[in-house]
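hey m, so remember when u said the tokens were messed up on ur end? i reran from scratch. heres the input so u can diff it against urs
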Amino acid sequence: KHQSVFEEQISLVSGPSHPFFGRDTVDVSELAHVQFVALSPQTSTGGLIRSYLDRLGLDIVPAVTTDNVETVKKMVEEGVGVAFLPDMVTADDVGVDGKPGRLARSKVEPALALPLVLVTWRDTQHSLALDAFIEEVCRMGRNWDAQRARPSVPIS
């Protein structure tokens, strides 16, 4: 049995020194001319992003590839390049409610999302603990969807 919890948006992020910083949207054509820092395509999210870039017809060769999201975020913040990262990963790094952030998100169309799906055995009796865990994950997904609606604010 499976149930969708939420779809995690994956956004283009840039650091304060990058021309994309503070821009609400970036056109796909502009991505061919910038340096990228990337999650390794061996990770599930990195592979999804690589496939997305391929579908967009972009032949991106990242300046740096790593399987560590914190390393990608720090390199973007320091101006090494831009990156596509899940919004949940950058939630504490982008500005909200008028407060500046170390990173800024820009939308690129078509949007990229990673569905989070909870899978359990269909014919297995759930314990109270498992049922509570499933409910908590679903509640967190609903709360994340509500928080995600807040816009990011770049450093001015």
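this time it looks ok to me. The chain is about 30% helix and 20% strand. if urs says something different then somethings off w ur setup not the seq
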